[in-house]
Amino acid sequence: MDGQVIKGLVAIFLAAILTENYVLNKFLGICPFLGVSKKLGTALGMSCAVTVVMVIATAVTWPLYVGPLVPNGLEYLQTVVFILVIAALVQLLETILHRYMPPLYNSLGIYLPLITTNCAVLGVTMLVLEKAAGDPSYGYIQALVNAFGSGVGFLVAMVLFAGVRERLEECDVPKCLQGLPITLVAASLVAVSFLGFNGLVDRLM
Amino acid sequence: MQILIPILIVAGIGLLAGIILAAASILMAVPKDEKAEALEALLPGANCGACGFSGCSGYAKAMAAGEAQPGLCSPGGQKTAAACAQLLGTGPVSAVPSVATVRCLGSADNTRDRVAYAGLASCAAAQLLGGQTDCGFGCLGLGDCVAACEFDALRVCNGLAQIDREKCVGCGKCAAACPRKLIELAPKKRRAVVLCQNCDPARDTLRVCKAGCIGCGKCQRACPVGAVAVANGLAAIDPAKCVGCGKCAAECPRGVIRLETV
Question: Phi and psi of B99, rounded to 5°?
């Protein structure tokens, strides 16, 4: 692997975290972002689970897409097949964790099955294929790094927002804004602040 | 023919995933806690939450882990407690089942409504407006407790909620539903209960109800074990101290004290 490729991978990783953040830029996976970010501990657990599932899902769906789907002209079945595969994968992962890593299984708890229907995971697997279609140098490794970076980006967004929400708890919020409204306002402000990273990664290249 | 290939591919992927999952669930099966499962089978399965756990399965797990004692299950009563204790190998526990009591005698014969209430048929709603009954403490008779009961043990008769002590399992849901906190949950034993919660001075109580406690204190003087206390114009009997002799009930000039038998 030459230096140029490694530099490209770092750029992909950073871009996935900062400029193409799934939660704050693409607005995917908002449900767990709002639902599970009340406490720092649960936010961490959820994002670790999402990261693991994103990488494994991309690792499996990419060959599936390139293998049986593209040669038969079945790109349109992408969504159906990917949902099927991701659901089965999460189930498998749960069984394995339950058997071999009970503490991790217990700490992930309900989050693991919840990820089955997380649109950010589906989004990663489909968007890396879109990128690969437009860029011939974008391969399997790049897709995996992107998936990992997206997971870390999810983690960064969740942890940041959990901190914001913990401070919100103590604020004297007007009655009409209490609860979800102020949470959404705070989320949009965090998203706007992430716009500041635009162009950062291009300059690194 | 064109449609066959996609069908076969998607079905094949699904089948493969299914086989892998099935194999994984057999190969990597986690041994379940047999003790907890056996205990859960002994519990009534009402999931009422009277034990303080999230449901029968939560209670069974806690018992299996040694974090909870058998005998907390109110619907199961003595029989379940004994069966669980036997399975756990601990000694027999004495579980006195709880039973709910409506501490009010304000039926339509004894008291009146101060206004004609035509709102939502719910005690909680009526209580928001201060309640339609003349007595500010008595049963509203709109049946929030009846709706809360999952064992069909409550009825509203003549404007007063009444509990079928045979059907009551002592889960306490009615007590939580009553906006006037009239329903008391106490061990099912022979004891006396004051069927009134009116804390007003005697004059006001006399005006609103034919069967209200006026706090005269006769019961307190009659009690041989000191189980009765009169405060704020209202007598209260400690179920733990009461021996069920019935002397207070005999003395009561208003007939508010009832002797409950098992």
Answer: -145, 145
Q: How far, CA to CA in Å, does A128 sit from each of A22, A87, A148, B82?
A: 12, 19, 12, 61
Q: B21, A64: Cβ pair inside 8 Å?
A: no
Q: Is the dihedral of CA A168, A171, A176, A179 positive or negative?
A: positive
Architecture of domain B98-187: 2-Layer Sandwich (3.30)
pLDDT for position A109? 65
Closest CA to B181 of B262, B223, B236: B236
Task: Among B13, B27, B30, B33, pick the best mutation site for testing chain A contact (most A Cβ within 10 A).
Answer: B13
Chain A neighbors of B25, CB-CB under 8 A: 95
Residue pair A46/A121 in contact by the 8 Å Cβ criterion: no
The span from the CA of B47 to the CA of B191, in Å, is 29
Flag the least confident range among A59-73, B75-89, B181-195, B243-257: B75-89
Across the interface, do B28 and A100 touch by the CB < 8 Å criterion?
yes
Q: What are phi and psi of B155, to 5 degrees?
A: -140, 150
- Tell me yes or no: is domain B189-262 CATH 2.40.50.140: no
pLDDT at A148 exceeding the cut of 90: yes
For an interface test with A, the pick among B15, B21, B26, B27 (most A C-beta atoms closer than 10 Å) comes out as: B21
Q: How many CA atoms lie within 13 A of B75 on its CB side?
A: 21
| pLDDT higher than 90, residue A170 | no
% residues pLDDT > 90 (chain A):
12
E strand segments, chain B: 98-102, 154-157, 160-163, 183-187, 191-194, 228-231, 234-237, 257-260
Per the CB < 8 A criterion, the answer to whether B163 and B181 are in contact is: no
Name which of B113, B144, B81 is nearest B208 in CA terms: B113
Q: Can you give the length of chain B in residues?
A: 262
Interatomic CA distance for residues B227 and B190, integer angstroms? 14
Among B10, B17, B30, select the one facing A88 at the smallest CB separation: B17
Q: Does domain B34-88 have CATH number 3.40.47.10?
A: no
- Report field, pTM of the whole predicted structure over 0.90: no
Sign of the Cα pseudo-torsion (A27, A29, A31, A33, in order): negative
Fold match flag (B98-187 vs B189-262): yes
Taking the C-alpha atoms of residue B134 and residue B208, their distance in angstroms, rounded to an integer, is 6
pLDDT at B161 (0 to 100): 92
Provide the residue ranges of all domains of chain B, joining segments of one domain with +.
Answer: 34-88, 98-187, 189-262
